[in-house]
Design brief:
Largest sheet: 8 strands, parallel, barrel
Low-confidence stretches: none
Strand order of the largest sheet: 1-2-3-4-5-8-9-10
CATH class: Alpha Beta
Bound molecules: zinc ion
Distance between the termini: 40 Å
Strand content: 15-25%
Helix content: 40-55%
CATH superfamily: Aldolase class I
CATH topology: TIM Barrel
Radius of gyration: 19 Å
Number of helices: 14
Number of domains: 1
Order of helices and strands: EHHEHEHEHHHEEEHEHEHEHHHH
């Protein structure tokens, strides 16, 4: 088997996680979370989104967060945008990495944006031109890349058509997102292997929600297909837009724990992430779908038995 030596984790909790929470954190609280996750060794952090505050009130202060947070030179701070207006807000706030998102499913995209996925990416052309001139790098996220609530399984060819649209406007870092938690390990392996073959110079990233308990099996499938960048969320925050109350993103501490137990480096300090994730649960005021926060680390159990025998 083709296991990676190390993986790169992108923390999406401050955006994908907090955006669906009822509790709206203050800018100071968000800044603390972002600074602490950077201290834990995470090198890519999605700090928020520059979208309409009416649509997503939880993200209304992303400008303030970006301007006030302390930054590390080797960390990439990125934000989600929907259009040129959002990109300009990012630039004003000193954010030089922006993520554009489009749905792979035609019905989902038409319902949300009144555009097909291909039209939606083409509409990003002006934004991509501005980004290129102003030194802002872009990544493209393809949501419902594996399954769509309206259409079911999204065919590989359809996903690759959207990838090539991104590619044609110069976006060569692409995330395949299982927003709805419908992906399965075999499908992930097939889609990722094919994607890597068709677009060998694209930097691939995977984004899994653990909605139906197969998030980590999907991570492993992605690894075996040669992908080594994964999104995750502290405490497993996040949800499924079509299933209120469902499990969220795979939890950062669960991902780090699994990797370290397999001898795969993440560059992160697990204990720092665990204490941060406990703090996140306190801030939002409810339990989340993190496994490690409930069960502890494997090594905790081994140590507790060793101590009992003494
Ligand atoms: Zn997500």
């Amino acid at each position: 088997m083709n296991w990676p030596d190390k993986i790169l984790i992108c923390e999406v909790g401050p955006r994908d996680g907090l955006q669906i929470e009822k509790a709206i954190l203050t800018a100071e609280q968000k800044i603390e979370l972002i600074e602490r996750i950077a201290d834990a060794g995470i090198k890519i952090i999605e700090i928020g989104s520059f979208v309409s505050p009416k649509a997503v009130p939880q993200m209304a202060d992303t400008d303030e967060v970006a301007k006030k947070m302390k930054r590390k030179a080797d960390v990439e701070y990125r934000a989600l945008i929907m259009n040129l207006k959002g990109l300009k807000r990012a630039e004003d706030a000193g954010i030089y990495k922006a993520k554009l998102t489009v749905s792979a499913s035609k019905s989902h995209s038409l319902a949300n944006l009144n555009k097909t996925p291909e039209e939606a990416v083409q509409a990003f052309g002006e934004t991509a031109e501005y980004a290129a001139v102003h030194g802002i790098s872009l990544s493209g996220a393809i949501s419902t890349a594996f399954g769509c609530p309206f259409e079911g399984k999204v065919p590989l060819e359809q996903v690759m058509r959207v990838v090539s649209c991104f590619y044609n406007i110069g976006v060569k870092e692409i995330s395949l997102s299982d927003t709805t938690g419908m992906a399965t390990p075999k499908q992930v392996y097939e889609y990722c292997s094919k994607a890597k073959k068709l677009f060998p110079d694209v930097v691939w990233n995977l984004h899994f929600h653990n909605t139906r308990g197969v998030g980590f099996a999907n991570v492993v499938s992605g690894m075996l297909a040669g992908i080594n960048r994964f999104d995750s969320s502290f405490a497993g925050l996040g949800g499924c837009p079509f299933a209120p109350g469902a499990s969220g993103n795979i939890a950062t501490e669960d991902l780090i724990h699994m990797c370290h137990e397999m001898g795969i480096e993440t560059g992160c300090d697990l204990d720092t992430v665990i204490s941060l994730s406990r703090h996140v649960q306190e801030l939002i005021g409810h339990e989340t779908s993190s496994f490690i926060l409930k069960a502890g680390k494997s090594s905790d159990i081994v140590n507790s038995f060793k101590n009992r025998d003494k």
